[in-house]
Structures are given as structure tokens and as C-alpha cells.
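Sample A.
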Amino acid sequence: MKDPYLKPVIFGGLLITLLSVIFAPAIFLWAITGGYVAVRIANKITKEIMSMRDGLFLGLFSGITGGTCLDILTLVSFRSTDNQRMLIRTLEKNWPKEAGSAPNFPELLPALFLTTSIFVIVIAVLFAVIGAYGGILVSRRKIS
């Protein structure tokens, strides 16, 4: 049995990942784009009116796919000790003087990565669902 939604979810998630790797600060826009594109591709594959629930699930899973791929890429890139040292030096250099002495960043690094990973997935999912909702509204307007 072929699932017509698998390719749109994977494509939407990889689109989020690719665009975020190119310009990370715009992850919000890329997630919206990924959710929207996933719905539009699914509409072309199925050639029928998609229910709101199906469209929102497309956005949800596209966001999960994109956020998870971004987290994996980040973890792989920071396996290098040179990258870890560079990050620690940057954090220490930019630590505000008003906050007191800088914490021990090498010990905080795992917690920092976990928090950031969760944050990236939440952002990707939330905005991909918004993009999917927009895709559903646009496709329904074109039909009527």
C-alpha cells in the first residue's frame, strides 16, 4: 500500500532543513514554506480536496522531520572538538559582565544542546502547521 502523504512530508521536512542550513535565522519562514509545500504536493498527488485534519498532520510531520534533521546536522557538526571549543569561547566572550562570572560551559553543553534541539523542533512544528493551514486555505479557494 502506497501512502500519498509520505513524499510530501519528507520533501517538506527536507526543504525546511535545507533552507535553514542556508540561512538559519529565517527558520520560521522556512517552516511555514515547508508546511505549505507539503500540502500543495499532497494535493497534486491525491487530486482531491484534503481535509483540514490531514493537512495539519502533513504540517506536523513535516515540522518534525525538518526539526529532527536540523538537530541531527547540528549534533554531527559539533562532534568536532574544534567546533565545541569555538562555541565555548564564543559563549564565554559574549557572557554579560552584569551576570557575574561565566558558568562552566563545557559542563553545560549537553543541556544547552538538548534545550536548543527541543526549541528547534517546537518552532519547526508550530510554523509548519501554520504553513500547512495556509496551503489548505489556498487550495480550497482555488477549487471554489
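Sample B.
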Amino acid sequence: MRQRSRIILYAPSAAITARPDLLDRVAERYDLRSVIIRSPDRTAFELVRERDLDALWLAPGLWGDGQQPATNRAVFPSVPGWDASLHPAYERQFPMQCPNSPGFAGELGAYYAQTANALGATGVFATHQRYHHPANLEHLWGCICPNCWVTAAQTGLDVGEVSNFWRALAHKLAKLPAEQWAQVPVMASTNPLIDWWAALTDMDFPLRWFAWKNTSIESHMLRVRAAFEAGAPKLAFAANCFEPLLAPLVGNAPTTQRSSIWYAPLLGYWSHHVHGSLENLAAWHLILSSQGTRDSILQALATLLGVGAALNDAAHGIRQELYLGAAQAAQLGMEYYPVLNGTIANQYGGTASQFSLAEGLDLAEKLGAAGVIVQGISQLLDDALLDFWY
């Protein structure tokens, strides 16, 4: 019996070309609308279109896979306290292009259009249009190349202010035990952590800095879309974004997504994106403060972000973010297509709670999502062997 949930399937081209019948099997069980294809394999796109499905190309963004135009690489500050005691920041391995690099957005959008047209795609699904996850503390503070110095100055920011802020933060943390962090009066504005930094240090620098960082990504995305539509005016431009809880930290505040045809936050990566980032942020705050323990500071940060109950429960965290994403999509007036990644277990210790895809589909539907983007054929077909083959 066909389930009601509308599905957009994220699939590797190898799985489609080797087993196109998998698409038919998914369509028998779900309302399959589109397929996002990872690599530019024309045969895979033809097989998808033969089934009257939209075929979107997973277009590389500021970093990640794919042949990107040559341009200026981003330059990041040396963060005090970055050392081997931190968890490996997975995304740190990918070199990143500067979103403020002149001409880069236009080149990237033209590349999208040229490739999508050549493939016969119905649109693109842009990914990694952001900075790395906050587990990479260098990327947390954005690019500080000469192009960024110029654009920051246009908003009244001096890139050198970041060092002054770090010193002020360390000074305040040294005097305030983690158990008292939540008692600091905060004016809700950008993000709970950013707002708390501003309140604790009595500096508006964090608010201005991350506003500039998000504006840089938004401006970049608008230019990419304009160049893409100039070369492929009839094709769709869609993009994903970061986990809603920490999105403003990586340049993906909700408003930066207005260039996309839908609001599609990555969910189901709680351990990889959120918990890993909180672990490294806690270790960094511990180094700056020189007091407390990593566990006490981790709990304090989780409390500030309102995810204390989810700290050791990945499933609870993903549910929270599904609700948060739905609220933000409603505020933006955009269709909500959360991105789910099958069954995720907590990788950072604690309870190995799991969040099933079936639960995600059901909750997304209850929250009024237009559909769900699913990363993984195996979960949809209840066939774990597919993970081995593809």
C-alpha cells in the first residue's frame, strides 16, 4: 500500500545505473517525486527521467566533492586552544573557497547551468553552501582573507576585533563557573550561543560578526542562483542547509535560504554535526576558562542551547530539530523538506538511541512538511544489504 509521505530520494548514480528497478520498488511504496543524483552520470539521469521523475544534480558548493572553478581559497584564523584533545573535525579535511571571492559565485552558477544542461537534469540541489560544522573551530570564525577584510569593513567590522573578543571571553569565563552560565541575562536575537557570548562579554561583536558571516553566504547564494538561472532559466534551483540549531554559526541562518525553492535542513546527523560540535566547543571553553570540567561545560552549553535532554540521546535531538525546522519553514513561508539519513546512532557515548526513518516520515508529515528528502535507498526498502552494495 502506498504511503502518503512524499519522497525525494538522494541516491548514488552507481545504484541507479546498476539497479534501476530500485526506483520502481521505492515508487511502489512511497509517493516518489524526485531523485537527487550525486555524480554527473548522464545514464543515471536518463533512467530517472524515463520514470517521469525529476532528476536533480547534487551540485558542489563552497567545499566538498566535484570539479569546482579555480578561485581564491578561504583563509582562517588560528584559534587559541585548538589542540589534539579536540574531537576530529570531519569537515576540516575539505579545502573551502571564500564566499566573498570576486567572480566565484558567477563561475559556480555558470558551472551548475552548464553541467545541468549537459546532463538533462531538471534542476540542481546545491550542497555545502556554508562554512564547516562548528566542530572545526577555525571555520567557526569564518574567512579572514583580504576579500573578507573588505566586505567586513563595509559593515563596520574590523576583522582584528575577533582577537579582542576571544580575550574578553576568556576573561569572563575565568570568573564564571559553568554552573552559573545559564544565569546570565540574554536578549534573544541570533542564536542562543551567539546571544550568550554577547551578553557575557557585554560586546555586540558576536552579533555583528555572525550577521556578516551569514550575509556573506546569502549574498553568495543569490549570485550563484542568478548565474545559474541565466544559463538554465527553466531549471529549478534548490539547496540544503545546516542543522537548524547551529545553522547561524555556519552561515545558514534561515534567511540565507531564500534563494532555494524549499527549506531543506540536514537532520539525522545529530552526532556528527551537533554533538561533535558541542564537544569541541566545550573543550575550547574549558581551555579559555581554565576551570571546571569538560562534562560540566558540555552540559552548560547544552543547557544554553535548550538541548540538555538530547545531549546523550540522538533520537531526541533529531526530533527537536524537526520541530525547529518546521517552525522556521513556516516563518519563511517556504515548503519544508527536511533531509533525513536513515537510522542514526549516537557516536559520542551515552545512550545509543536510534531514530528510525519511519518515525521521521511520520513526524514530518504531522508537522506539515511538503515531503522528506531521504539519504539511503536501503532504509526505504528495509534492505540493509543495499548498504553493502551501494
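B remarks: The beta strands are 6-11, 31-37, 54-59, 123-126, 236-239, 339-340, 344-345, 354-355, 372-375. The two ends are 26 Å apart (CA to CA).
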